[in-house]
Amino acid sequence: MKTNGTTPSTTDPILRLDNVVRVHGTDTTAVRALAGVSLDVHAGELVAVMGPSGSGKSTLLNLAGGLDSATSGQVLIEGQALGTLKGDALAKLRRRRVGFVFQDFNLIPSLTAVENVALPLELDGQRVGRARKQAMEALTLVGVAELADRYPDKMSGGQQQRVAISRALVGDRRLVLADEPTGALDSHTGEGVLRVLRERCDDGAAGLLVTHEARHAAWADRVVFLRDGVVVDSTGSAQTAEALLDPAL
Question: Domain ABC transporter: where (predicted)?
Fold first, then answer.
């Protein structure tokens, strides 16, 4: 794959944000959600994103996954600039390379758990049997294989969250984006989900995790702290994450 005439090397990041600015609105109503953010996330790396409400965390995830477009700057996935893709090409990249875990789950009510998880693979042309097999493996990975034939309205919030996480991990996703993935889970189950996410990154994916809890950030290799759309990098230890959240610093 080539971007701007160059070929990515094996050391190039899976995700790169290059001086990204996102402004909502115009003129006197303009709000700068991100103010020149640059960030690389490499294969095998899990990066936690922390910050107060309104700091730009969700905007950062939406831009990283191609759900929103930058006002200026570039977002690249495996060297491909998202701003150069339109319509079907952008949808295909998201479907094949990016796994999303949303706060509100975004499961399709008319599909069972296994059908929800298999859907991205089927849309990408995989045979139903093979897609369902991989979906069952992903459901088993997060401990909800018994929910395979259950519809979302027959699941608890925590069960829906784990099905959504399975959908994000199924297949060969190179980038996993998770927005508070443990929000609807008890502490024991939440730790298990974070362990699965950590293992997926250890196997070669790149992960971006939005969380407000320092103990969850401790699973990451480093923490990116956002305040007013500005980013600060640090290590991923729980102690450092807590220090970053101290408004006195």
Answer: 15-249
